[in-house]
Amino acid sequence: MRKSGASGNKITPNRKLIRKSASRQDLRGLNDKVTLKHILGLTTTNTNGLASNPTSGIIAYPAGCVIVLYNTKTNIQKHILNPDKKTITCVSFSPDGRYLVSGESGQQPSVRVWDLNENLSQVAELRGHKSGINAVEFSPNNKLLVSIGDQHDMLVNVWNWKLGHTVACNKSGCRVRSVSFSESGNYLVTVGNRHVKFWYLDQEATSKGNAPITPITGRAGILGDQRNNCFTDVKCGRGKNSAFTYCVTKSSLLCMFNERRIMDKWVELKAGSANCLEVTENYIFCGCSNGLIRVFDPTSLRFVASFPRPHNLGVNVSEGLQPTDLVHVSNKSCPDLVAITLDSEHFKMTSIYNDHSLYVWDLKNIKKVGKVASFLYHSACIWGVETYPYFDDSPSACLPYGSFLTCSSDDTIRIWNIETGNTQVKMYPRNLYSKELLKIVYIDEDLSNIQDTSMAPFGKDTDGKNGVRCMQISPDGQILATGDRSGNLRIYSLDFFDETFRIEAHESEILCVEFSPEESGYKLLASSSRDRLIHIFDVMKKYTLLQTIDDHSSSITAVRFNYDENILQLLSCGADKVVMFHTAQTNENGVCFVRNTIVPGKATLYDMGIEPTRKYAATVGQDRNMRVYNVQEAKQTTCFKGSLSDEGNLIKFQLDGGGVYAAISCSDKTIGIFDFVNGECEASMHGHSEIATGLKFTADGKHLISVSGDGCIFVWNLPPALTENIRNRILDLNAPLPQENDYEEDARRKTFVVSGSDSIPTDPSHLEESISNGKTPAGYRFSVGQLPLWAQKQMGNGQDGNGQSKGQSQPMGRWGQGGLGPVTEQALEIPHRKFSEDSIASAHSENPIDGEPEEVIYPPVEEDTAMMDPEKTFYVTESRGSQSANKTFNQNGETIDLNGTEDVDTETDPEKESDMDRQSSSDVESDNDEAFSPLMEHFEKLATPAKILSASRSRSSSSSEPVEPQNALQQKFVPGHRASISAKFLSRSQKSSSTRSSTNSTGTADEQRKRLENLKAKLGNHPSSASQTTSTNTNNIIHERPPPTQASAPNLSTAQRAANRKASMDAAARMSP
Questions:
Q1: What phi, psi does 431 have (nearest 5°)?
Q2: Which residues of 883-918 are buried (b: 16+ CB within 10 A; e: fewer)?
Q3: Is residue 123 helix, strand or coil?
Q4: Which of 97, 370, 548, 1064 is the most buried (most CB within 10 A)?
Q5: Of the candidates 357, 499, 482, which has an alpha carbon nearest to the alpha carbon of residue 408?
Q6: What is the rounded distance in angstroms from the CA atom of residue 931 to the CA atom of residue 929?
């Protein structure tokens, strides 16, 4: 690292660092030293972003630039990082479960194949698309691989992935939403907006190793009445139904195509929309809006069952302690399904919803579905993260050790804890909705931003005034202060998380809030905003305003209190490129801050931090440098380069508890850990698909938490050498430090089997005490599933290989109240299994492979008219032959013939498709250009005063003329210009529709001339009945001319009206050919 600044001025804090000997040095690369421990979040936006391993049951989904491999049995994550730092868009497993394929967004994306048996290594990288990739899938024989490009690419590529070249290719003609291989592998099917196409493969050509690229033959499906529908997902039939193909539509229809590509049947799903689909030999699972999952028979499309709905939007997760708390409230809405995937081997289904929640369902009884696990994540940009401080006296703590808080643009504040040893503290016990999530605080009562809006035509609007922008916990751990994007300052009590104060503090978004240190003797709160103001509030006087500082000329991005040598200072920096030092002075009102020094800079400053000794402060900004200042002298001492690359800006800066290392996030989506003394880079990480907007070290120095605009929380494991240096430094400062054995516990889940109880006990201390005394308490069973078979047989008196007493039934625990009776555990050793009612019944009492019973919760079944009497609700419509003899079955089994239309090959020519069809809101996505980042635009706009932005927005919204954009970014996201784009396409649509209606209604020129002659003759012969005759002819000739105005008729005489009509007819005659 280069070092610059005043000569002789160096940071020389009294610290004790542990330097490793040469034999113990960490020789790994910078990108390998820090590893991912856990990810809280996902970025799945459609059905292609979720997959299940057909052999192991592990599910895969994207989280930014990372693929998460989640084991539903052990609750353990593994991670695959994309080396190109591009967002993962789609994933799929091979039929044998050994390989995983992924697609990515951006320019020149790659299709990557990963070997799951070889340390998750990449075995193939295929390049053939120019823009993003929407879907990928293996062929049934595992030899071929298909990848589908996005709406800017539209390529259908078939790869021989082991040889690394394309064997077949063609253009889809429109944006493809999903793809599915047939069971035979002879063809594949793609669906989209008014698009269902069957692509037939030449098996002889694709099997040759060096064969040239051949075009795929594509034939459109015969859609009939549904030719204008938008098809969202497709799956080919399996087993006895392999000749059929199944699709779901945006209008909530389940459609079935026969072997001749004709839509044979369809059924209404009785939902707002249908988004995803899974098909087995015996069942069809349809994921719909409002949390509905419908199950149908694949042969007759007969309704079978419905899944329990997930949580209500706005649910209080801290109150979900009993299974009865999981019941759906009828007057509240649920999140929409985004993706579902089925594990037929272990009878589980995983579903993802548009509020970024994930559920794992148990399907051992298709009529009584249970919940295995669930997770509720942020659905929008996360702006900040705060770790709860560690206290030696735990009774004074409001939150468990290891808890941290995040705030987001989805208008929520969430409390997380991933430490497995913490069961409950005060008001936050572990709940049934999510084990990592303790509490959700909703800012917006309308919940208008809780669901993901990434599918909007112009992408996420990061310049909206929704969401919590910043927050901080008070030094005593009792208060939380937050600032939102509307300028409101909210104060919460962490005991019950009640909102105690709300202050309309600023005219624009609040960028930073800060509490004064406890040792200063003052209890102050400072807030800074884009309106160039800093407000100082007195906490002890109910947050009365003490002072307003208006010394800055632009947005204030960071404000910090510092107390050293009995002097209280206030430091601030912002987009005006200066660092200001203010000193506190007492007066009759209490305290006020007086400006002492201004240190000018060369670029916008985005963040600031003060090291624990209170001697030095550091800033980061657009010049990619970390500048260090002596606080007492108010001078810059050193300057280090804070990024390994020469591109991007430094956005966030965070020091660890000992001030040894600094974590810095860059706009190139990387995070670096630097030595705060010499500026040496210790580690570099990547994985977020957006800028890291918040960083925080944990109190024990073992982890780094990062949050990002992609809505994901990454928990990183720090190397042991860095952790040891941090802990030694904290001990030198006499600061409280968690001990090594605090809340340390085995990573596997505890399993409690409870007899005669409705819920699992939340306090297992009495069980642990009995175990420590050598006694086995009632209702508790040790899991020996991981022991060798010979050791399992030696366990206990008369126990079998699973650790169960022979001849005894396993208690049902929490789900025992379902009245299913006792069950006997058996080992799952069936190599290949079909998903049917018989197989489900036989496996209903079986445990997972690892021998440990899972915690299955059966929510109370809500009253569903579809489940009580499905024939009265779901009507199957059949199409026979070339004409649509649409049959609807009523409640008596009688058939009702509806109006039929002739089936037409509805494949449209993309060149003839209208502009309005191309710009429909259901079919347009944001550009996948990696160079464009709305979040980066937000930080760049901080240098623009808020008043100028608000004035330009008001002018653009009030003016009828479109605003000329100044640059490409403004062209995409300025609201006024967006409205003008919509108006442009609307006017074009109106013109084209009026032209078509006029042409279709008037007929040929000869017919027009005859009508006009007849009308003139009638008017000349019967002038008194002219009004009635004209009205009759007007009804016969629709859209030929506008009807006469009723309001002006009484004011005109009969002669005047006749003259006006004659003049209009003469004008029409002259216009006609």
A1: -110, 175
A2: ebebbebeeeeeeeeeebeebeebbbeeeeeeeebe
A3: strand
A4: 370
A5: 482
A6: 5
Shortest CA distance to 372 belongs to which of 45, 815, 818?
A: 815
DSSP 291: G
Cβ neighbourhood burial of 226 (10 Å; 0-12, 13-18, 19+): buried
- Taken as a whole, the chain contains a residue count of 1073
Nearest partner of 641 among 680, 694, 685, 693, judged by Cα = 680
Q: Which residue has the tokens 């007899």?
A: 755
CATH 2.130.10.10 domain span(s) along the chain: 39-220, 231-377, 380-563, 602-730
For residue 797, what are its two tokens?
A: 């008196």
Residue 49, burial from CB neighbour count under 10 angstroms (0-12, 13-18, 19+): buried
The answer for residues whose C-beta is within 8 angstroms of residue 304's C-beta and 6 or more apart is 283, 295, 296, 297, 366
Give me the helices (H) in 912-974, please.
Answer: 915-918, 934-940, 946-958, 968-973
Instruction: Note whether 524 and 561 are within 8 A (CB).
Output: yes
Residue stretches of the chain with pLDDT short of 70:
1-29, 31, 205, 207-210, 393-394, 420-427, 453-464, 740-854, 860-873, 880-934, 943-1009, 1011-1012, 1015-1057, 1064, 1067-1073
As given in the structure block, the two tokens for residue 673 are: 């850990």
Asked whether the beta carbons of 680 and 674 are under 8 A apart, the reply is yes
Q: Are 461 and 452 in contact (CB under 8 A)?
A: no
Buried b (16+ CB within 10 A) or exposed e, 423-433: eebeebbbbbb
User: What is 380-563's CATH topology?
Assistant: Methylamine Dehydrogenase; Chain H (2.130.10)
Rounded CA-CA distance 337/343 in Å is 18
With contact defined as beta carbons under 8 Å apart, do 675 and 682 qualify? Answer: yes
**Residue given tokens 């391993």 in the structure block:** 53
Give me the residue label for tokens 């929380």: 713
Determine the pLDDT at residue 1025.
42
Query: Hey, what are 403's tokens?
Result: 């808890």
Structure tokens at 917: 């069809």
Helix (H, G, I), strand (E, B) or coil at 606: strand
Q: Which of 152, 195, 142, 144 is nearest to 169 (CA)?
A: 144
pLDDT given at position 38: 96
Q: To 5 degrees, how large is the angle CA 1058–CA 1061–CA 1066? A: 125
- The Cα–Cα gap between 822 and 258 comes to 44
Beta-bridge partner residues of 357: 376
Whether 334 contacts 291, CB under 8 Å: yes
Quick one: which of 24, 34, 247, 9 has its CA closest to 681? Answer: 34
| CATH class of the domain at 231-377 | mainly beta
Measured CA to CA in angstroms, residue 472 lies from 354, 389, 478 at distances of 29, 11, 11
Q: How many helices (H) and strands (E) does the chain have?
A: 14, 61
Q: What is the pTM of this model?
A: 0.76
Rounded (5°) CA angle 647-651-652: 135
CATH code assigned to 39-220: 2.130.10.10
pLDDT for the residue numbered 802: 41
Alpha-carbon span 905 to 198, nearest angstrom: 12
670-675/59-63 β-pairing: unpaired
Which CATH number is 602-730's, of 3.90.550.10, 3.40.710.10, 3.90.1570.10, 2.130.10.10? 2.130.10.10
- pLDDT digits 0-9 by tens, 999-1028: 444 455 666 667 667 766 665 554 444 434
Distances (CA, A) of 618 to 262, 627, 628, 791: 68, 5, 4, 59
Extract the runs of DSSP E, i.e. beta strands, from 175-322: 176-181, 187-192, 195-200, 214-215, 217-220, 231-236, 245-249, 253-257, 263-268, 274-279, 284-288, 293-296, 303-306
Q: Looking only at Cα atoms, what is the longest distance across the chain?
A: 116
